[in-house]
């Protein structure tokens, strides 16, 4: 694991991409819809503070890394749906554990932030 501190370490690269500002939120949202696949606009409505461009970039990155699949249906207008892959489904228990930890510790973390801000 010592190699993980070096910039060209594959583990560091994977963690950096999956922990980008929007990636985990998009994965979480896709899972929470309870649907097998979700249309772009539905996903955009579920995450109101993400721009269309950033959602597109995030979905493309997640697709490149094999976290989501993108299916385009030959309709007019075109229908595009996104779904989580099996790889991502294996990540969900870890993501849910992280969310649970954050929920359990959020009040203490916010208090520490306030203390730090007051001491500056």
From TrEMBL:
The lineage of its organism: Bacteria, Pseudomonadati, Bacteroidota, Bacteroidia, Bacteroidales. Pfam families: HxlR (PF01638). The keyword DNA-binding applies. The keyword Cell membrane does not apply. This is Helix-turn-helix transcriptional regulator. InterPro entries: HTH_HxlR, WH-like_DNA-bd_sf, WH_DNA-bd_sf. GO terms for molecular function: DNA binding. Keywords: DNA-binding, Transcription, Transcription regulation. Residues 9-110 form the HTH hxlR-type domain. It comes from the Bacteria. It comes from Candidatus Phocaeicola excrementipullorum.
